[in-house]
């Protein structure tokens, strides 16, 4: 692999974004013989074996935010929310909580049925397996489950939920257990380690770090070049094909600055129209989460100290899958508890039990605030805005179930509530959810895949952007509907699938 100070004038394939998906598709294309230039806006710390990575990005017990893009927005009641995204090689796979899940087969089968052939669960299952191997998934041994997580699993079991480690089973239903994790030797294995490192020695792969993409240029509707800002210098790099993998916020940003998107929005910003695609930046959805928070008890402090012995302590491990009355499948909720140090609390710990809706009906937008690439887009997921109120009903169910079944069985570790009381009635609870919710850090859908004759479609089933040639997208933005999963692994599978389409001899 080449790491360059100056950019080439032209290359075969440019991958915009070296994140969760970008590392995967760049590695697969380079291994297939393509000449690939990766443009990553953040730093590249090189192979894991070189030992140059910051400690917080390696420590699988932490959720670092040191390399954040800085997206900001608001919740359903106007409360400020940070929409963290990682600006570093490996992307959010270098920041995530390491719990991995595949979701439900029916969600992927619905993609295939809606005009995306090759995306059914049977098509994707081998890719999930391959990704798990390369990202070195493992399961926690019984002795590795820390006391707070053990108590949560016990409480769920006593409430009638079976204890099964089946978050990697496409056919799974309600259960509680610990997910597989991309952790080896206490290190978070991101996609740069799992995919890119094995290809770095190839002369046909170049990674250009600290390279912010302004826009893609087209000639007669075909990709011609990319404008990049790097070390204060603006360059233009020609390419035969571009793969956009900048994420659910970044990919629509780049498309919009490039003139691909809703004509009226582009006109408002004075951007010349290349292709009128109303779906660009639309269909934004995330997993909303209502957080129950408590001070940790003296017993929690004692139990955690005894477990860790002052060493490694995973803060987040277990997940329960629940089915609400509005679910369109076997489950539609995650409760995924964690503990975090909090010096403001008497015993030094805070406990969080988030209830997250996995199949939100609400849809929002990503819209440019400026043509300038250094100005972040306006992110508005419009949480809990669905007309039928299904998202609120689902979260209400999860809050009630958790309050009635889990909290009373965890009083050894859960102390004083740190949130306002949750009203028992539907309307009061709805208001509480709107005012106190956050999210699961799972944005998706802003460049949705679908049938090419659907005006809301942005990419076809092979990731090709409709209305132009030579441009594909391969990241979580192409999800038509987010699967009921933590989407890091499904995002890897998206990149695997589109790379397979690109390197196949037939279509």
Automatic annotation (TrEMBL):
<dbReference type="Pfam" id="PF00732">
    <property type="entry name" value="GMC_oxred_N"/>
</dbReference>
<dbReference type="InterPro" id="IPR012132">
    <property type="entry name" value="GMC_OxRdtase"/>
</dbReference>
<dbReference type="InterPro" id="IPR036188">
    <property type="entry name" value="FAD/NAD-bd_sf"/>
</dbReference>
<feature type="binding site">
    <location>
        <position position="88"/>
    </location>
    <ligand>
        <name>FAD</name>
    </ligand>
</feature>
<dbReference type="GO" id="GO:0016614">
    <property type="term" value="F:oxidoreductase activity, acting on CH-OH group of donors"/>
</dbReference>
<dbReference type="InterPro" id="IPR007867">
    <property type="entry name" value="GMC_OxRtase_C"/>
</dbReference>
<feature type="binding site">
    <location>
        <position position="213"/>
    </location>
    <ligand>
        <name>FAD</name>
    </ligand>
</feature>
<keyword id="KW-0274">FAD</keyword>
<feature type="binding site">
    <location>
        <position position="440"/>
    </location>
    <ligand>
        <name>substrate</name>
    </ligand>
</feature>
<feature type="binding site">
    <location>
        <begin position="441"/>
        <end position="442"/>
    </location>
    <ligand>
        <name>FAD</name>
    </ligand>
</feature>
<keyword id="KW-0285">Flavoprotein</keyword>
<dbReference type="GO" id="GO:0050660">
    <property type="term" value="F:flavin adenine dinucleotide binding"/>
</dbReference>
<dbReference type="Pfam" id="PF05199">
    <property type="entry name" value="GMC_oxred_C"/>
</dbReference>
<protein>
    <submittedName>
        <fullName>GMC family oxidoreductase</fullName>
    </submittedName>
</protein>
<dbReference type="InterPro" id="IPR000172">
    <property type="entry name" value="GMC_OxRdtase_N"/>
</dbReference>
<feature type="domain" description="Glucose-methanol-choline oxidoreductase N-terminal">
    <location>
        <begin position="247"/>
        <end position="261"/>
    </location>
</feature>
<comment type="similarity">
    <text>Belongs to the GMC oxidoreductase family.</text>
</comment>
């Amino acid at each position: 692999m080449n790491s360059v100070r100056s950019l080439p004038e032209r290359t075969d394939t440019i991958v915009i974004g070296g994140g969760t998906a970008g590392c995967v598709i760049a590695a697969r294309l380079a291994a297939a013989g393509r000449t690939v230039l990766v443009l990553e806006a953040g730093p590249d710390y090189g192979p894991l074996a070189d030992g140059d990575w910051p400690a917080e990005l390696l420590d699988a017990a932490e959720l670092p935010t040191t390399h954040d893009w800085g997206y900001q927005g608001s919740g359903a009641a106007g409360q400020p929310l940070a929409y963290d995204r990682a600006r570093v090689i490996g992307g959010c796979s270098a920041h995530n909580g390491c719990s991995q899940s595949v979701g439900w087969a029916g969600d992927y089968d619905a993609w295939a049925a809606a005009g995306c052939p090759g995306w059914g669960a049977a098509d994707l299952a081998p890719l999930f397996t391959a990704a798990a191997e390369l990202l070195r998934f493992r399961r926690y041994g019984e002795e590795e489950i820390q006391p707070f997580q053990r108590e949560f699993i016990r409480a769920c079991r006593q409430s009638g939920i079976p204890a099964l480690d089946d978050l990697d089973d496409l056919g799974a239903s309600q259960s509680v257990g610990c997910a597989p994790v991309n952790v080896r030797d206490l290190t978070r294995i991101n996609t740069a380690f799992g995919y890119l490192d094995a290809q770095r020695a190839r002369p046909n792969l170049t990674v250009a770090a600290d390279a912010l993409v302004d826009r893609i240029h087209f000639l007669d509707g075909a990709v011609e070049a990319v404008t990049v800002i790097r070390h204060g210098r603006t360059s233009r790099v020609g390419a035969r094909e571009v793969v956009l993998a900048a994420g659910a916020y970044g990919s629509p940003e780049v498309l919009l600055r490039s003139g691909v998107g809703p004509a009226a929005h582009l006109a408002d910003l004075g951007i010349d129209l290349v292709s009128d695609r109303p779906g660009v930046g639309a269909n934004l959805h995330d997993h909303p989460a209502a957080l129950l928070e408590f001070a940790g008890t003296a017993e929690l402090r004692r139990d955690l100290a005894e477990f860790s012995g002052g060493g490694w302590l995973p803060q987040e491990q277990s997940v329960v899958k629940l089915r609400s009355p509005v679910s369109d499948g076997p489950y539609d909720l995650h409760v995924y508890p964690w503990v975090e140090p909090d010096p403001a609390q008497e015993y030094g710990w805070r406990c969080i039990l988030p209830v997250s809706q996995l199949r939100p009906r609400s849809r929002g937008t990503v819209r440019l605030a400026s043509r300038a690439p250094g100005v972040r887009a306006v992110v508005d997921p419009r949480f809990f805005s669905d007309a039928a109120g299904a998202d609120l009903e689902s979260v209400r169910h999860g809050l009630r179930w958790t309050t009635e079944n889990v909290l009373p069985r965890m009083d050894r570790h859960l102390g004083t509530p740190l949130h306002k009381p949750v009203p028992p009635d539907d309307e009061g609870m709805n208001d509480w959810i709107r005012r106190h919710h956050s999210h699961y850090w799972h944005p998706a859908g802003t460049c949705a895949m679908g049938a090419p004759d659907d005006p809301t479609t942005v990419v076809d089933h092979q990731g090709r952007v409709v209305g132009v040639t030579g441009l594909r997208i391969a990241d979580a933005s192409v999800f038509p509907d987010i699967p009921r999963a933590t989407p890091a692994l499904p995002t890897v599978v998206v990149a695997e699938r589109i790379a397979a389409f690109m390197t196949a001899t037939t279509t």
